[in-house]
Amino acid sequence: NTGSLWGGRFASGPSPQLEALSRSTHFDWRLAPYDLQASRAHAGVLHAAGLLSDADRDALVAGLDRLRAKVAAGEVSADPGDEDVHGALERLLLAEVGAELGGRLRAGRSRNDQIATQLRVFLREHARTIAAAVLDLAEVLATQADHHLGAVMPGRTHLQHAQPVLLSHHLLAHAWPLARDVARLRDWDARVAADSPYGSGALAGSSLGLDPEAVAAELGFTGSAANSIDGTAARDFAAEFAFVAAQIGVDVSRMAEEVILWATKEFGFVRLHDSWSTGSSIMPQKKNPDIAELARGKAGRVIGNLTGLMATLKALPLAYNRDLQEDKEPVFDSVDTLEVLLPAFTGMVATLEFDTARMAELAPQGFSLATDVAEWLVREGVPFRVAHEVAGECVRRCEQLGVELDELTDDQLAEISPQLTPGVRSVLTVEGSVASRDARGGTAPARVSEQLAELRVVLADH
Ligand code: ARG
């Protein structure tokens, strides 16, 4: 079979069962453009090392360019006899430029350094696409926050009413992790960029006087691997990418869970736009948050990609092992999943309609102003231990009487503690409560406006 890259020492060809197990073209063919780009750079260093004449280099480059056009046009593809994308492209190159010239290109490289390089280039490209999509989502959250400055809602811990907060504050709390995810992708990219493995050969480096730095520069890297074994065997770059992808999945999923809750009759905090929600085949009244549910579901999938990949890596001796062929499908899947999920999720968030009246109505309920009572007492000179007890007593009294904190009479307040003078009423409003939390990072309207401006600077920087 002309697509095989080995065979000289074998008396018989591979069994069909082995070929079926070994074949990876159904998932690695998408690396074909990256393989051809690297081959072009490789022809350059072979020429620089005196291993290809000018004419041979030009003929090879022209052949590779023709092949790239055919691949892009879908005119050529892998054959069942091809083991992987590298073998398939060599077979096609030989058909393009002849066996004599085409056979020269493989000198000084191995599929081990080829695949380690190409996966890096592929992931670097998609990291940029994903970062842009994450930024879009963060910007849409910032826009929603901007439109609702001033609106209040019940802030929760343990899913129980805790303290009132601004809706904008809550929305921005989802945007900051996304900004960090983008920073993670950038940090990751700088690390990967410094480590081009091309020229590492099978594991030990090349004896042919080829310059790995030249190939690295041509492929957009900032440097080449310091250690050829590490260059061909390390996949921490893939695992780290899978982690950042999983973290993005988790960050989106946490938001998704809230959208799902908020869209219930019981919460009634949001209405989903018709174009970004789904119906039921039997219940005509239904409007379902499928995008959010799929986001929550896909998070499990991208976490699985990370854990699966790490399980593959955990006991591999140096250097290359064929197990490493299993590195591609998980990261490809994480890329494909996020690239479809993020635009849909962003569209859903952009078109969410908030019922701010409903949120405002619920904000003071569940005695969410009890902390404000305690802190007011502290400002009056009461030790917090005592203040906490007094405020707790107020809640107990309210529960007995079936009223809210601000409905306690002056007499009832004084009965609980002489220190509870009518002055406490100044903090028994949601507006007073949020306005009082005015240190950096707090939910006071002025601080949230500053926070929004700060986030926008961070997002613009990315
Ligand atoms: N297709 C392999 C992979 O994806 C690269 C080929 C290396 N094969 C080998 N026998 N050294 O990792």
TrEMBL record:
<dbReference type="InterPro" id="IPR000362">
    <property type="entry name" value="Fumarate_lyase_fam"/>
</dbReference>
<feature type="domain" description="Argininosuccinate lyase C-terminal">
    <location>
        <begin position="367"/>
        <end position="435"/>
    </location>
</feature>
<feature type="domain" description="Fumarate lyase N-terminal">
    <location>
        <begin position="15"/>
        <end position="304"/>
    </location>
</feature>
<keyword id="KW-0028">Amino-acid biosynthesis</keyword>
<dbReference type="Pfam" id="PF14698">
    <property type="entry name" value="ASL_C2"/>
</dbReference>
<dbReference type="InterPro" id="IPR020557">
    <property type="entry name" value="Fumarate_lyase_CS"/>
</dbReference>
<comment type="similarity">
    <text>Belongs to the lyase 1 family. Argininosuccinate lyase subfamily.</text>
</comment>
<keyword id="KW-0456">Lyase</keyword>
<dbReference type="InterPro" id="IPR008948">
    <property type="entry name" value="L-Aspartase-like"/>
</dbReference>
<dbReference type="InterPro" id="IPR022761">
    <property type="entry name" value="Fumarate_lyase_N"/>
</dbReference>
<comment type="pathway">
    <text>Amino-acid biosynthesis; L-arginine biosynthesis; L-arginine from L-ornithine and carbamoyl phosphate: step 3/3.</text>
</comment>
<dbReference type="InterPro" id="IPR009049">
    <property type="entry name" value="Argininosuccinate_lyase"/>
</dbReference>
<dbReference type="InterPro" id="IPR024083">
    <property type="entry name" value="Fumarase/histidase_N"/>
</dbReference>
<keyword id="KW-0055">Arginine biosynthesis</keyword>
<dbReference type="InterPro" id="IPR029419">
    <property type="entry name" value="Arg_succ_lyase_C"/>
</dbReference>
<protein>
    <recommendedName>
        <fullName>Argininosuccinate lyase</fullName>
        <ecNumber>4.3.2.1</ecNumber>
    </recommendedName>
</protein>
<dbReference type="Pfam" id="PF00206">
    <property type="entry name" value="Lyase_1"/>
</dbReference>
<dbReference type="GO" id="GO:0004056">
    <property type="term" value="F:argininosuccinate lyase activity"/>
</dbReference>
<keyword id="KW-0963">Cytoplasm</keyword>
